[in-house]
Amino acid sequence: MTTRTVDTTQELAAFLRTRRERLDPLDFGLPARRQARRTPGLRREEVAELAGVSVDYVVRLEQGRGLRPSADVVEALAGALRLAPGERAYLFDLTRQRPRNADKLATTAAPPLARLVADLSPLPAMLMNHRYDILAWNAEMARLLIDFGTLPPAQRNAMWLCLMHPRIREFYVDRERVVREGIAHLRAAWAAHPEDQALTDFITEFTAGDEEFARLWAERDIKVNGRGRKVMRHPEVGEIAVQFEVLMPLEDPDQRLVIHRAADEESQLALDRLCAG
């Protein structure tokens, strides 16, 4: 069955349960007599006490019974569950407590940003939106990854390429981590953009048709990477290690500028050979 919109009530319930179950009671200094547990993590009454709400309230939230917590309660729950910054933002998105950008979702590159992508040569650079659609790229990025211009528009998506394209599937040395982090980003984007039907359809399709995606999606990890390191197996020049940086323009906050730089001297030499070819 196709989900037409984000079911935030059920997602909030599942997210709260999984985060509660991941907590280690020992980290909270709970008395030893309270350590014999049949299920992992903290009990609901312990979370309720930490957050300053009733146990019944936590139970109703975790059962998806239609509550909409206030911003103060959301903040208290985030603190009680010791959520990381990305997870905290996700919780606020699910409870509709953050102001939203009402602008139209980005499906084409803003012209000034497209020019900037070209001007960043010889650094490989590209422009994406929140769902990983690739909106613009320069020649160096096309040489490093793939010539996006040869692909149908529907396939110009970094997650689709990593999951489905026969060459890109084997492109990353640490593929599991790359896919896991990409899915964790998509989950955050999904909560922040419930009106984006294309993103919902994409997630529904891959949850139903790709075992790896479905497994990682069910873990409900939330992580929005602004920078990091990837090692690539390039068919022409061998392994290339890159550092990437993701920038969000103030004028176009739904677009993300991704810039790659060589992580070491050997990788720089490989990039130079690749881009000179």
From TrEMBL:
Transmembrane segments: none
Phylogenetic classification of the source organism: Bacteria, Bacillati, Actinomycetota, Actinomycetes, Kitasatosporales
Name of the protein described by the UniProt record: Helix-turn-helix transcriptional regulator
Residue ranges constituting the HTH cro/C1-type domain according to the UniProt record: 34-88
Organism: Streptomyces durmitorensis
PANTHER family reported for this sequence: BLL4672 PROTEIN-RELATED
Pfam families reported in the protein's UniProt record: HTH_31 (PF13560), MLTR_LBD (PF17765)
